[in-house]
């Protein structure tokens, strides 16, 4: 496998995932599953934290309740895969990806809300792209089917964050802010993190 | 209405809720619904935080995934009631109950885990008791039926926290620690908080 293996359907992302990542992931499927479990739990946590922080934003609260529920469902499903493969649940050091993206979030409102929604959209878009790559290339048919199954709902999540951003901010403001954040996101992943992760 | 109005089926609780609370709640049903929404979201947050903190504790992670899912379902249902009554979502200052109980949690492990599970069990038990009182006394039949409907699953939650406590700790240790925590819990509520809340 060489070159670029991603689908062009992922908007938001400035650069597609390089083949080095999928090679690393396929050689470490168990570790990727364990990291994936952490990602789903963290994604539910992000949605819930936003619901805590903006309790008056009815559209945000409603949409993120749905996302948190889906992420918890996925968390449960990934954990069933871990069980089936005899992989114990446990901590796993996170790659620098999340912390470096969070460092881009401005601290004052309303910029903080805009940036948080866009960073979440980018993370969801990247997750969607990479789960799609696993669905496409995983040599174990059942596991590949599982990744394909997750994508149906994962695909919606970055759309939800995008729609929320354009609900609370002017579209031009959203698009102007997305560009530099998407650039940072792609730059972080331009160097493959040595430890296999969903966002290595 | 005078005297004691609670069911004796609630174990854990050292003292039943006094009638002053139900009178306060019935006179402020809209505010109680809004606070209830916050309680469900916070309960989901507590479960998720525990899953973050103890990622290797498989039984805890599995049980609390289920609880977080149910709390989010309830959160959604309570918010539909708010919608229907034209009550906007919004922040609401919490009563002292949660913070005062959290202050009882010891900071070192493994005591921290034991105390967190028992405080969660107590809060769930009290919520269950008080939702039961609302189901019993609410003059609006549909709303009363809603509270009754929630109780079926709420009833399990304090049991889950209790079972987790006895999974990770000796039963005698759990029981010895429960007694003083339950006493503090009842003492906090012995004086009715002037603002109507689920835990006023």
Name the features.
homodimer; 200 residues; mainly alpha; Ferritin; 7 helices; globular; disordered N terminus
Report on the structure:
The structure is a homodimer of 200-residue chains. With 200 residues, chain A is mostly helical. The first copy, chain A, has one domain (19-87, 101-188): Ferritin (Up-down Bundle), CATH 1.20.1260. In chain A, 70% of the residues lie in helices and 0% in strands. Chain A has helices at residues 19-26, 29-53, 58-84, 97-102, 111-137, 141-168, 171-190. In chain A, α3 packs antiparallel against α6 (141-168), α5 packs antiparallel against α6 and α5 packs across α7 (171-190). The longest helix of chain A has 28 residues, at 141-168. The first copy, chain A, starts with 18 loop residues before the first helix and ends in a 10-residue tail after the last helix. The A-B interface holds A 38, 41, 44-45, 48, 51-52, 55-58, 61-62, 65, 68-69, 72-73, 75-76, 79, 88-91 and B 38, 41, 44-45, 48, 51-52, 55-58, 61-62, 65, 68-69, 72-73, 75-76, 79, 88-92.
Largest interface: A-B, 25 and 26 residues
One letter per element, helices H and strands E, the order of chain A comes to HHHHHHH
Whole-number tally of structural domains of chain A: 1
Which oligomerization state do the chains in this entry correspond to?
A: homodimer
| Tally of strands of chain A | 0
> CATH H level of chain A: which superfamily?
Ferritin, core subunit, four-helix bundle
The CATH architecture designation of chain A is Up-down Bundle
**Mass-distribution shape of chain A:** globular
Largest sheet geometry of chain A: none
